[in-house]
Design a protein that fits this description.
The protein has 4 helices and 13 strands. This is Methionine aminopeptidase.
Amino acid sequence: MGSFEIKTPEDIKKMQEGGKILRAVKNAVAKKVKTGVSAKDLDEFAEQMILDLGGKSSFKTVPNYRWTTCVNVNAGIVHGIPTKDLVFKKGDVVSIDLGVLYQGFHTDTSITVAIDPSAQVSKMLKVGQNALDLAIVEAKPGKRIYDISEAIEKKVKAGGFNPVRALVGHGVGRELHEEPQIPCFVSGTRNESPKIPVGAVIAIEVMYTQGKPDLVLEDDGWTISTQDGKISALFEETVAVTSHGPIVLT
């Protein structure tokens, strides 16, 4: 699982400022998901807004990744390249993942939105958001990573969906991906799981699907999709752990 990179109150303050930028960008980008809009349109808008607000793209610091966002549609769950050929249509379920680098610290967030969703898709997205909210509550000193994973898995499965097992949330800070790993599912025993300390900052990710959790890497070398082609979704926030409990930074 790995150990935590502890952040000082000053570090967390910087991450709060970066997270504020990221939250504004995420909300603005989500509103732009409409029929006829392309993933490239979203990516260019997000990059410009991040720069205008004084931040930099976190994802462009990833080796060989040249974009500000990852945009996935329907069966795509993570790392989708935001191309001009990916044009949204009615019924699409669109996941947007983005990060901001600000004053030396990264923040990371994701949201899934649907264009004219069915009742089943609306339920699915509500379940994912609720699972994330419940997981954030568990991000307290003395709790364990296991408690976060359990909160996600219970809510997702109770809704009739499956958390993916090949992808995980993570620590975040001076690096975009830090230890520890934070699964969407229970792994091992609670007592083996790391205790969450004050000063931890983690990206809690809820990644789940309507079908089986098995995933496949697409031919572009980046996009990861469900193997059975069923719809997937993604919700993520960066959360700081303080003596008073969790603070959502994004």
